[in-house]
Amino acid sequence: MSAAEPLVLGIETSCDETGIGIVRGRTLLSNTIASSMDEHARYGGVVPEVAARAHLEALQPTIEAAVAEAGITLDELDAIAVTSGPGLAGALMVGVGAAKALAVSLDKPLYAVNHLVGHIAADILTGDEVEYPTIALLVSGGHTSLLLVRDLVSDVELLGETLDDAAGEAFDKIARILGLPYPGGPEIDRAAATGDPQAIRFPRGLSRASDLAEHRYDFSFSGLKTAVARWIEQAEASGADVDTADVAASFREAVVDVLVTKALDACTRHDVPRLLLGGGVIANRRLRDVALERAAAAGVAVRIPPLSLCTDNGAMIAALAAQLIAHGRRPSTLEFGADSTLPVTEIQIAEGA
Amino acid sequence: MILGIDTSLGTAVAVVESDGVVRAEASSGNPLGHAEVIGTLLQTALADAAHGAIGQTAAAETVEITYVAAGMGPGPFTGLRVGIAAARAFALGRGLPVVAVPSHDAAALGVLLAAALADPFGETPRFAVVTDARRREFAYSVYDGVDDDGIPVRVAGPALAPRDDIDAVLAGLAAERRDVATVSAAMVATLAARAVAAGRELAGPEPLYLRAPDVTLPAPRKAVGA
Ligand SMILES: [Zn+2]
């Protein structure tokens, strides 16, 4: 194998996307995704058992599609990579079981890696020179995390994360309150297009001076959700028309404001003039615009990988493993399991002796 | 040779020759931890299989796997999926077909072979394979001997019954209860060999879940009060 440019297949099943990616070093060869999002739509959120069933169904055809797209054969691979956490346990286990069996079948080394660090690794597939340290803000339906990345393969620190709902979940829940379909992100965006983001001043979670001492970089969206629900109820009770556009725009502004404010605060306090955005919620145009605008004012350079690499995918998992290999890391042993709460400091799991 | 994998109860892997001679078996009885052990069990079974049938000590030879047999349940879903995913991925890695086998059918074959060994001329009366389905339920399948292809004849199930009702249900089906705590991957592989030889399909690609996903539909907007 070429240690600098290993050919790696990555398997990602931590939430509702079955992602298979193939990379050669820092070069993306295939990023194939089967999503079960439609199956969750009627439930208004990701149902773990539905997701796990869909992973099992999608796994084999998705691997086949990825291999065909990359124009390789499986026995050419230098290594297999898999997400072992964090994520939905039952969903993760489908990928872990498959990855181990594929590695044994092909007699190839296996790298078990961290999903969140995978999101950071996605950035190296853009072909640009990536500089560290960087602050990373990862926002999706499953996680909202603020990280300080000093080194991709050896030093990632969790600065803060959500204490309740993930930001993406908050969008889904508010969409439901407003009678909009799932997934909530794009729907809220559409509804907010004609709204005034300053119309209603919704609370910014964990942003008061008294919160900052202990939760400077943590997030909380449950209070915001309750505030929006209460505002609508009171408006309806008083016989007023609820302006959905204003509510959507003001809610979105509250989420975006707190995300960007805390991320840029982390850049300032750690003296890191770089911010990497990742996760599916990055698709939100307002979040990107506000981040770019306020980062420019603060002298912080923002990196946003293409959306197909921001949402959950297997290419980022393969990319992370390729970097671990390039840095001489030994493969994982076959004994690891799925870890739904894997801390971000564990970049690779069960490295062999 | 056929690689059998079953994770409907514990985690079991076996390599069996197409005539049923068992080359290697590796298993864990733990009803949890399927994802943790599956890789090592596969590795162990394949390595052991290289040394000939169980009981022999032959020089190592290459193990040519031609089919992968997957136990399709019923069984607790999370663990069950690990084995099926592993079977499919292993097969994909080597370009092999997957043979889907109902796990209860494999357990029934085990019951019938053990009975035939104990009394070659005896007849095994109708019996039910009963396994734990959690949530105070059992999964059961009822069998009436084997057919001409050597495949157990399932006359009822797989289905679920509340724990307190299982005996009444089986009495109604005139089936003797056989509680099964482990499914042998060797039996899964042997049954797959018989199905392949007979050109038959024993199960579809969908695991035998027997239950719809557990979902609580979102409540309509609830009042939060002022
Ligand atoms: Zn993610």
* Class inferred from helices and paired strands of chain A: alpha/beta
Ranges of chain A where pLDDT stays below 50 over 5 or more residues in a row are: none
Count every helix of chain B, treating DSSP H or I runs of 4 or more residues as helices: 5
3D shape of chain A: globular
Characterize the biggest β-sheet of chain A: 6 strands, mixed
Q: Helicity level of chain A, as a percent range?
A: 40-55%
Supply the CATH class of chain B.
Alpha Beta
Beta content of chain A = 15-25%
Q: What is the number of helices of chain A?
A: 12
Proportion of strand residues of chain B: 25-35%
Helix-residue proportion of chain B: 25-40%
Report the CATH architecture of chain B: 2-Layer Sandwich
Strand runs of chain B, count: 9
**Overall shape of chain B:** globular
In the CATH hierarchy, what is the superfamily of chain B? ATPase, nucleotide binding domain
How far apart, in Å, are the first and last alpha carbons of chain B? 69 Å
What is the H/E order of chain B?
EEEHEHEHEEEHEH
Q: Which strand order does the major sheet of chain A show?
A: 3-2-1-4-5-11
* Number of β-strand runs of chain A: 11
The order of strands across the largest sheet of chain B is 3-2-1-4-5
How would you summarize what this structure contains?
Chain A is built from 12 helices and 11 strands. By secondary structure, chain A is α/β, with parallel strands linked by helices.
Descriptive account of the structure:
The complex is a heterodimer of chains A (353) and B (226). Chain A is built from 12 helices and 11 strands. Chain A has helices spanning 37-41, 48-70, 89-106, 115-121, 167-177, 184-192, 209-215, 222-237, 244-269, 285-298, 307-310, 314-326; strands spanning 7-12, 17-24, 27-35, 79-85, 110-114, 134-139, 144-151, 155-161, 274-278, 301-303, 348-349. Chain A has a 6-stranded mixed β-sheet, with helices on both faces. Chain A has a 5-stranded mixed β-sheet with strand order 8-7-6-9-10, sandwiched between helices. The longest helix of chain A is centred in the C-terminal third of the chain and has 26 residues, at 244-269. The relative contact order of chain A is 0.19. The model of chain A has no long low-confidence stretch (mean pLDDT 95). Chain B has 226 residues and is an alpha/beta fold. Chain B has one domain: Nucleotidyltransferase, domain 5. Chain B has helices at residues 34-49, 77-94, 103-118, 166-172, 185-198; strands spanning 2-6, 11-16, 22-28, 67-71, 98-101, 127-132, 137-146, 152-162, 176-179. In chain B, the strands form 2 sheets. A 5-stranded mixed β-sheet of chain B has the order 3-2-1-4-5, sandwiched between helices. A 4-stranded mixed β-sheet of chain B has the order 8-7-6-9. In chain B, strand 4, helix 2 and strand 5 form a beta-alpha-beta unit. In chain B, helix 3 crosses helix 5. Chain B is globular. The model of chain B has no long low-confidence stretch (mean pLDDT 93). Chain A binds chain B through residues 42-45, 47, 49-50, 52-53, 55-57, 59-60, 63-64, 74, 89-90, 92-106, 110, 176-177, 226, 229-230, 233-234, 334-338, and chain B through 5, 7, 33-40, 42-43, 46, 77-78, 81-94, 205, 207, 209, 213-215, 217-218, 221, 223-226. The structure holds zinc ion. The site of zinc ion has 7 residues of chain A, from helix 4. Zinc ion binds at residues 115, 119, 140, 142-143, 279, 312 of chain A.
